[in-house]
């Protein structure tokens, strides 16, 4: 069963995010209090699988949830296999639409400076908030709609 492992936010872009107990995802905006939240972007909320983070851990680096600047750390869902346009539901209320897989990494990001490697460019995904709500660790994730 796929679920949320951690909810993370930061006040500045290009930095690691701090784990928070819960957060509010706002429709067409993102995670309240996060530097990346914005009504005018398709990259409102970022997701990264704990399975991806564990690959970097296995190389001997001390990393965890939020270290790659992701908002939501997931478990049990192959994020990068989902096509753009897929809807992801979290808990009973939240609906996210997958808008981008990966990103161009800038050499100035905190994790790249620390270990010389970043997994967000290939394994992170970005979403737009279609329907908001409270999100916390343990919330169940379901793929509810794919691109047709």
Description:
With 148 residues, the chain is mainly β. It has one domain: PK beta-barrel domain-like (M1 Pyruvate Kinase, Domain 3, Beta Barrel), CATH 2.40.33.20. Helices cover 12% and strands 36% of the residues. The chain is built from three helices and eleven strands; from the N terminus they run βββββαβββααβββ. The strands form two sheets. Strands 2-1-6-5-9-8-7-11 form an eight-stranded mixed β-sheet. It is globular.
Unreliable spans are: none
CATH architecture, please?
A: Beta Barrel
Distance between the termini: 24 Å
Give me the count of strands: 11
CATH hierarchy, class: Mainly Beta
Under CATH, the homologous superfamily reads PK beta-barrel domain-like
Rg measurement, Å: 14 Å
Helix content: 10-25%
Spell out the helices and strands N to C.
Answer: EEEEEHEEEHHEEE
Notable characteristics:
mainly beta, 148 residues, single chain, 3-stranded antiparallel β-sheet, M1 Pyruvate Kinase, Domain 3, 8-stranded mixed β-sheet, 3 helices
SSE layout:
Layout: E1 3-9, E2 18-20, E3 22-26, E4 30-31, E5 45-49, H1 50-57, E6 72-75, E7 87-90, E8 94-101, H2 110-115, H3 120-123, E9 125-131, E10 133-136, E11 141-145
Summarize the structure.
The protein has 148 residues and is mostly beta strands. 12% of the residues lie in helices and 36% in strands. The chain has a single domain, classed as M1 Pyruvate Kinase, Domain 3 (Beta Barrel).
């Amino acid at each position: 069963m796929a679920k949320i492992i951690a909810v993370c936010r930061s006040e500045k872009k290009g930095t690691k995010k701090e784990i928070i107990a819960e957060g509010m995802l706002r429709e067409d905006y993102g995670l309240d209090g996060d530097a990346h939240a914005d009504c005018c972007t398709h990259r409102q909320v970022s997701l990264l699988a704990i399975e991806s983070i564990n690959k970097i851990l296995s190389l001997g680096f001390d990393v965890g949830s939020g270290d790659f600047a992701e908002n939501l750390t997931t478990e049990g869902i192959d994020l990068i296999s989902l096509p753009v346009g897929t809807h992801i539901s979290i808990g009973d209320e939240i609906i996210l639409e997958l808008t981008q897989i990966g990103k161009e990494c800038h050499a100035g990001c905190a994790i790249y400076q620390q270990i010389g490697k970043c997994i967000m460019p290939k394994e992170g995904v970005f979403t737009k908030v279609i329907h908001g709500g409270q999100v916390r660790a343990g919330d169940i994730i379901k793929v509810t709609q794919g691109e047709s």
